[in-house]
Amino acid sequence: MNFVEKAVIMNATDMNRAIKRMAHEIVEANHGVENLVLLGVQRRGVPLARMLGEAIQQVEGSEVPEGSLDITFYRDDLSKLGPVPQVASTEMPFDVTDKIVILMDDVLYTGRTVRAALDVIMDWGRPQAIRLAVLVDRGHRELPVRPDFVGKNVPTSQREIIKVKVQEFDDKQEVVIGEVTEK
């Protein structure tokens, strides 16, 4: 199976603009950054959370603690990942209890990744609130999950795939839409 790219729907400038807007929305919704922490979902949610943290610091002048979540063993499709699933690390250098957690992911699709991330967070403590930030919301929800902060809404068909590329993993920063083909 191959991914055939159809179009770039966000370039690096668009992504940065969306993240800056989300940073302003988060600061406004929370009346500042007190009691706020950022958690990025492995893989691409982590560098996006870092970018969001930098944008929030530029807006508010205060650093927001950042961490990362690996949801691999919380997935409801773990058996479909193959005999040796790729496992990253969960790094939470703070207590989430009574914090306002901003959970950052690259693409919101069915909602299953978010459900798994909520389970991970709750295993680490009981936050005051969890707010969801996503760079792209593509629709097609299977679970009752709705983002609080969205970079871009992109209606898609079930056949289409959205790929977020970040410098850390892809040596470029952009969002593309495409389809998986047999060859």
The end-to-end span amounts to 5 Å
Structural classification: alpha/beta
Count of alpha/pi helices: 4
Helix content: 25-40%
**CATH T-level topology:** Rossmann fold
The largest beta-sheet arranges its strands as 3-2-4-5-6
Instruction: Report strand %.
Output: 25-35%
Could you tell me the radius of gyration in angstroms? Answer: 16 Å
Summarize the structure.
The protein has 183 residues and is an alpha/beta fold. It has four helices and eight strands; from the N terminus they run βαβαββαβββαβ. The protein has helices at 12-29, 45-60, 112-124, 167-170, and strands spanning 2-10, 36-41, 66-69, 100-108, 129-137, 149-153, 160-165, 174-181.
Explain what this protein looks like in three dimensions:
- The protein has 183 residues and is an alpha/beta fold.
- It has one domain: Rossmann fold (3-Layer(aba) Sandwich), CATH 3.40.50.2020.
- It is built from 4 helices and 8 strands; from the N terminus they run βαβαββαβββαβ.
- The strands form 2 sheets. Strands 3-2-4-5-6 form a 5-stranded parallel sheet.
- The chain is globular, with a radius of gyration of 16 Å.
- The relative contact order is 0.23.
- The mean pLDDT is 93.
Keywords summarizing the entry:
alpha/beta, Rossmann fold, five-stranded parallel beta sheet, three-stranded antiparallel beta sheet, 8 strands, 31% strand, globular
